[in-house]
Amino acid sequence: MIKSEEVIFLEAKVRILEASDYTTKKKTKALFNLLTTIIEEVTQDERITFTTLFSRIAFMANRFKFDSSLMYYLHTFRRDNERMKIPLESEHYVDLGAFLVDQIINKVWKKVITTDDIPEDIIRIFKGDKKEVVKFKPVIEAIVDSVDVDTYTVNFYDEEDATVLRTAIFDQGDKNELFNDSVELLGRSFSFPIHANFIDVEILEDGTHVPSAIVIEPDYLLDVTAVANCFKDYGTESMLRLIGKFKMMENSIPLMVGNVANLFLDEIISNPDVKFNDLLPGIFKLDPMGLAVFEDKDIRELVSISKNHYLNLKKTVATELPAQGLSLIHI
Questions:
Q1: Tell me: the pLDDT tens digits for 77-91?
Q2: Beta bridge partners of 148
Q3: Where are the alpha helices (H) located in 44-145, listed in sequence order?
Q4: Predicted confidence (pLDDT) per residue in 25-54, tens digit
C-alpha cells in the first residue's frame, strides 16, 4: 500500500520526537528540516521562483489562509533556526516545531487536528507580553534621526508632530523582516537626518510603531522596469541595471504612442476641457531626440493615433469613470 504524503510526514515527525539518541537541539533542527521539506513539497509545482523559505511561507499563507498568529510562530521558528539561535536545552522549540508541522499538514491536507488553538505554553514562551495594536496609519512621512542595526530599531520624527522622537521596529517575521536589509543600508550608508516613509504602520499601546514597509528618500523616481529586469529565474542580478545603461535605446511608434497616452491621461484628468491642439506640442517635448530619427510619415502616423487616444481618454474621463462612481478628485 502506497502511503500518502501527509502520512509520510507525520510518521517522520513521530520518529524525530521518539528518537532517544537525539538531543532537544537536534530534534529541533530535524523538525525544522522536516517543516522546510513539507513547505517545499507543497510549493514546488507553482510557476513562481522562490528564492527564500520566507517567500514560500508567504505564498502558502495566502493560498491556504493562514491566520496572523500561525504566521508569527512560523516565522519565529524559521528565523531562530536560520540564525542558529536555538539553545542547547530547547524543549519548547521541539514543541513549537511539532505544533507547526501538525498545523501545516492540517491546513494543506485537512488531517491531524480539529482545532487551531495554540497551546498555552507556546503562547507563554514565544508570544510573551506582545503589545496590542491601538492605532493604524497607512503612511507616515518621517524624518529618521538614527538607526540601531543590532536591534533593527529606527528613531524618527513624524512630520505631523515633530516634537516627539518615536521608535519604529523591524525584524518582525510576520510583518516587515523583508526590509531588514533596507534598515541596515540606512544605518550604514546614509547621513542623518534623512527622509523616509513608513507604510501601513501599526502603533502599539506602548507607542512603538511597526511598519509593513519603509521607503527611503521617497521623492526619488525609480525606473521600475529596470528594477524588474534584475530579477531572473535563477535569482537577482543588480549588475544587469548597469549593463542596460550601455545598451542602445530602441524607439518605435507603439512605444511613443504609449508614452503619449500616459501624458494625455494625466493632462485630461487635471483639466478635462483641454483641447488636442493644446496637448500637441507636449508630444514633441516628451523625447525630441527620439522623434528626430523618424520620417515625416511616421510622425504623421503618431499624431493621428495620438488623436484617437485623446478622444478615447476624453470619453473615459468624462463618462465612464463617473459611471463607475470614480471621482476625478480622488484620482
A1: 998 898 888 887 788
A2: 153
A3: 53-63, 68-82, 91-109, 120-122
A4: 999 999 999 999 999 999 998 888 888 898
Domain count, the chain: 3
Cα angle, residue 218 at apex, residues 216 and 221 outer, rounded to 5°:
120
Report the alpha-carbon distance of residue 18 to residue 312 in Å, rounded: 70
Cis status, amide bond into 193, omega within 30 of 0: yes
Question: Taking CA 165 as the corner, what is the angle to CA 158 and CA 201, rounded to the nearest 5 degrees?
Answer: 45
Cα angle value 91/34/70 (rounded, 5°): 70
Answer yes or no: do 45 and 89 share one domain.
yes
Residues 152 and 99 in one domain: no
| 33: containing domain | 5-127
Q: Tell how strand 213-216 and strand 133-148 pair up.
A: unpaired
Q: Are strands 161-169 and 213-216 parallel, antiparallel or unpaired?
A: unpaired
Report how far residue 254's alpha carbon sits from residue 281's, in angstroms, rounded to the nearest whole number.
19
Q: Indicate if 30 and 16 belong to the same structural domain.
A: yes
